[in-house]
Design goal:
Elements (H helix, E strand, L loop, with lengths): L1 E5 L8 E2 L3 E2 L5 E3 L11 E3 L5 H11 L3 E5 L7 H10 L6 E5 L4 H10 L3 E4 L4 H14 L8 E3 L2 E4 L4 E4 L5 E2 L2 H12 L5 E2 H9 L7 H15 L9 E4 L3 E4 L2
Parallel strand pairs: 4-6, 6-7, 7-8
Antiparallel strand pairs: 1-5, 1-6, 2-3, 9-10, 10-11, 11-12, 13-15, 14-15
Helix pairs in contact: 1-2, 5-6
Amino acid sequence: MTSARASSSRCRSRARHEDPCRRRRSRVAGLDSLRPSPSGLLRLGASDGREAQEIWQRERPDLVILDVNLPRQSGLEVLRAMRTRGDATPVMMLTVRASEEDQVGALDLGADDYLTKPFSPRTLLARVRARLRRAGIEKPAPLEAGGFALDIERLVLSIAGREAVTLTPLECRLVQLLLANAGQPLPVERLTAHVWGWRGAGDKQLLKQLVHRLRQKIEADPAAPRSLVTVPGVGYALDV
């Protein structure tokens, strides 16, 4: 599954800074090809259908991309659960099944688009952008909390009273989740899943290294961080 967020704040209540996450970002749930990029999309990846449902319920992405053949729970079952609950989030189905019957079945179930494999990343991204435009969330809005403002499209973090810094895609993903949950401790597992996409792709040590690099950019004294703080026994938090 893939969820996309365009760094915009359609916030369905995601942005939290007013909820603090209820700002509008354009998130797409799903594919590696949708990592932070000039397109301003942030990918939320799931390795199976149950995890896809968990991410959808927790993150409320702006667009969802589902593979029909997800393990544990098929993409069609996830789609059915979403529509049964009245969720109108745009959903794109990816599959090797090219029969008219399969396509009609998915569209009748509530899918907004149906893309058969193989396809090029450019084609997929073009369709994602088109769906986001139709949903009125094409243009990203900065994600803000305290003295921080993140421009996900440009990978730039503005800090009150200091010069803006340019982030790497992984740093951007980390800051995005921390800003969306400003002031709240986030578990290492949730941070690694968000930053690297799939369970097992990142680990505690990789996250520690990423946090270290990010502190070099945003802290006045990286050795004594006051913004990106460690929460013993839990993980990290952005103190704003």
